[in-house]
Specification:
This protein is mostly helical. The protein has a domain of 128 residues. Strands 1-2 form a two-stranded antiparallel ribbon. Helix 1 crosses helix 8, helix 5 packs across helix 10 and helix 7 crosses helix 8. It is globular and about 50 Å long. It starts with a helix and ends in a 7-residue tail after the last helix.
């Protein structure tokens, strides 16, 4: 599965936000209480949703049950200027009953639908580990160039054929299923 740079950046910011909320100075896990406090401050937080969606999205932590992961996988390939509409995305997930009043309040805002799509994507990514293909590079840029050249040399030796691992094949299958589902909903196929 390919994740756009928009979502990769937001993913790390969302994870950092959850990490900051998780433990107090004594090391005690206080995430549940801090999330409850944030939910009480929703009116104020909504002012931040278009500039810092990760700071607001935490109020919806564990609010979604993803019924059609392929749609979410496809959604994550988009950048912020080409996101699917909430109405197209909401059919791929179920909102937990406790979160419905929060969602209703968010959807009243001018950027509410955009934010709900982003929040669902952030929570979806939080539930899935990053594949090696989507991890930000950790190595020195010179090392990256050498690795790229080595990969190209290996491709030449293999006659250009690459061996796919199970994760890549699974991601491709989910993306194709998501594309099929979106086409059934009336959207153009992304091929």
């Amino acid at each position: 599965m390919h994740i756009s740079s928009f979502f990769l950046e937001l993913r790390s910011a969302y994870q950092a936000e959850l990490d900051d909320l998780s433990f107090d100075s004594d090391g005690k896990n206080v995430l549940r209480q801090r999330l409850a406090d944030k939910r009480q401050e929703l009116g104020f937080l909504l002012q931040l949703m278009d500039l810092n969606p990760e700071m607001v999205a935490v109020v919806l932590h564990q609010a979604f049950d993803f019924k059609v992961p392929a749609v979410m996988d496809h959604f994550l390939t988009h950048n912020d200027d080409e996101l699917l509409a909430w109405n197209a995305l909401k059919h791929a997930l179920k909102i937990e009953p406790w979160a419905q009043p929060i969602v209703d309040q968010i959807l009243q805002e001018p950027m509410g639908e955009w934010f709900m799509s982003v929040a669902a994507a952030l929570e979806y990514m939080h539930t899935k580990p990053l594949s090696a293909a989507n991890r930000p590079p950790q190595a020195d840029p010179e090392d990256d160039t050498e690795a790229h050249e080595a990969g190209r040399a290996q491709d030449a030796e293999d006659g250009g054929a690459r061996i796919e691992d199970d994760d890549d094949q699974d991601a491709r299958t989910r993306e194709e299923a998501g594309n099929d589902w979106l086409a059934e909903q009336g959207f153009d196929r992304k091929d």
